[in-house]
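Quick one: structure tokens for this chain, please?
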Amino acid sequence: MISLKNIRKKYGDRMVLEVKDIDFEENSVYAILGPNGSGKSTLLRILAGVERDFDGQVSSAHNGLSYGDVAYLPQKPYLFDLTVMDNMILGIKGQNDAQAKAFEALKQVGMEDFAKAKMCSLSGGESQRVALARTMVCGCGIILLDEPASSVDIKSMRLLEDCISSAVQKKCTTLIFTTHNPSQALRLASEVIVLIAGEIAEKGNPETVLKNTSNAKTSDFLENWRL
């Protein structure tokens, strides 16, 4: 379990995140849902250990959070100007069957035919799929995905969602992803956290939060979405 307590983050004089208490359980998928500018990416950066300048505490049930156990996919991942396979094995060099594991991860996102291709030859959506596969193949206990399907088409989005679901089913993994898409949260998450203007408006079961909410802020956010 990962716990956040009394998290406060400012950029200059502007408070961008103020969260009193969140627990993330093992072997669960969490969607952090909200409009642009609501603090979703900042929260994920804090969990990833990328953002260190904040007030509050991030810990786990195992005497603190080891960031070596965290795999983090930012909105704009960096991929080296190498082949797809070379990018895939960067984080798992030295492991037994590293290439086989990498190839299997590429298959999950429909990119196995591109293993020998140079990254510069891929489209934005194809690169995003490779970046997700590279994150998943690390085998970390905590996987953090920031808008993982933001630049892909509908078919590719389904592949990515299947990959996310499969990762949690196969191993004890806490997977947390950000999205502004309530339908995606409903399909994937075991719990939804609605973040509005840096604060938690609501959290709980996706069906309850997204289809039967009584929270005014959540209702305003969902007004233009068809679930």
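The chain has one domain: 2-80+138-222.
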